């Protein structure tokens, strides 16, 4: 549970939990708990972060960096970022996807550690093989392709505006889906301590990010 919660906060929320869970042979209830904890926190950040950013007088750069480094799930980063401004949202996505790339080495490290621990318990040397193509976040490549298309001016501004409006519709749908994935009954069955740990981890990341940004800027 601690592995799932910490990886969720450090990397990319639900994607990290769903990817790491099978690698470390986590129970379904643990995965559901970690997802629920992640999405509940993200729901709060989407609502609160734009207001906090305006209250603290953050500019687009500082706010985008803050959201990109401290919000868990990619969809929530998009929502919280663009709720502040277009520039902040674009920067937040770039920072977030940079974090997401770390899912590859993190999963490899966890798989190696899990294999070592399991082998020690079972008294044999069977290794767990991990395929990079199964854990690599391919949507990042799609993001870079579309950044290239936009940068080269292949599509017109009117087309971009239409696509942007469509993307906001799908983002609203995605946030609704996040709410449907969150189940208080699943969280209740596991206990309070993991949720408390998740809250402490998430708040710590938010505060450390603000501290570092205040020192830099």
> Into which percentage range does the β-strand content fall?
under 5%
- If helices are DSSP runs of H or I spanning 4 or more residues, what is the number of helices? 12
Q: Uncertain segments of ≥5 residues (pLDDT<50)? A: none
What is the total tally of β strands?
A: 0
Radius of gyration: 19 Å
Q: Helical percent range?
A: over 70%
* Overall spatial form: globular
Number of domains: 1
Task: Tell me what the structure shows.
It contains twelve helices and no strands. It has helices spanning 2-10, 14-23, 28-55, 60-70, 74-82, 86-100, 103-122, 132-135, 139-151, 157-181, 184-190, 193-216. Helix 1 packs parallel to helix 3, helix 2 (14-23) packs parallel to helix 7 and helix 3 (28-55) packs across helix 10. The chain starts with a helix and ends with a helix.
